[in-house]
Specification:
The structure is a single chain. By secondary structure, this protein is α/β, with parallel strands linked by helices. It is 55% helix and 12% strand. It contains nine helices and five strands, in the order βαβαααβααβααβα. The chain is globular and about 45 Å long. Bound molecules: Pyrrolo-dC. Pyrrolo-dC binds next to α4 and α5.
């Protein structure tokens, strides 16, 4: 692919906490035509020694702004990262930052309206000034109670205080964005996968998306 003037077919992998996004991306590590960009959680857990993820969950009102400002920066860096392969799979995006997590914290009041206004100005600037393309969104659709149990089993220490209601609200925001299509500035088609399936059955579900993603890779390479 001539990477000088064409860009990779970009797939955003979206879903609630514990919906299996990392597992989904790992399934595609077998293909050399695809670049995988996983969510930089380790950067959020250690920015110059500060665990912003932990600070945010322990005291959301104090740290939500700091955390979401840094998450958005890392997402923007991932959107802009040059990719030599015909296909790029990204875990989450500046769109889920805006429509799911920042929106959730605004509604919960852990982001003050003035803080939300600042983040929203950044999102508007990014949307108008910096081309963030998405060609397909893979939505790992889950049931809140199922991912809540997975979060408990996964036992990521910072998340153990997350209540089921938080997961339920995040689910509604994902559904609003990706099923009801309530936001116009992310027009990419959405492929919905049933991510409630457990690991033994989920590979079949992933194979459904392989065709859509790899076919695009072949098309891009053949151009
Ligand atoms: C774009 C974006 C991703 C993201 C993840 N998170 C949290 C949810 C999980 O507990 C952890 C890893 O996804 O980070 C968040 O609070 N805000 C976010 N915004």
């Amino acid at each position: 692919m001539d990477s000088a003037n064409s860009r990779p077919f970009t797939v955003l992998v979206e879903g609630n906490i514990g919906s299996g996004k990392t597992t989904f991306l790992e399934h595609f590590r077998q293909f050399e035509d695809i670049t995988l960009l996983t969510e930089p959680v380790e950067e959020w857990r250690n920015l110059k020694g500060w665990n912003l993820l932990d600070l945010m969950y322990r005291d959301p009102s104090k740290w939500a702004m700091t955390f979401q400002a840094y998450v958005s920066l890392t997402m923007l860096e991932m959107h802009r990262r040059p990719t030599r392969t015909p296909v790029k799979l990204m875990e989450r995006s500046i769109f889920s930052a805006k429509y799911c997590f920042v929106e959730q914290m605004k509604r919960l009041g852990t982001l003050h309206p003035a803080q939300f206004a600042v983040l929203d100005e950044w999102f508007t600037f990014i949307n108008t000034e910096i081309p963030v393309e998405a060609d397909l969104i893979v939505y790992l659709k889950t049931t809140p109670s199922i991912v809540y149990d997975r979060i408990k089993k996964r036992a990521r220490s910072e998340e153990q205080c997350v209540p089921l209601t938080y997961i339920e609200e995040l689910h509604k925001l994902h559904e609003d964005w990706l099923i009801n299509r309530s936001h116009a500035d992310c027009p990419a088609p959405v492929l919905v996968l049933d991510a409630d399936l457990d690991l033994s059955q989920i590979t079949e579900e992933y194979k459904k998306s392989e065709h859509q993603i790899l076919r695009k890779a072949v098309n891009v390479v053949m151009q």
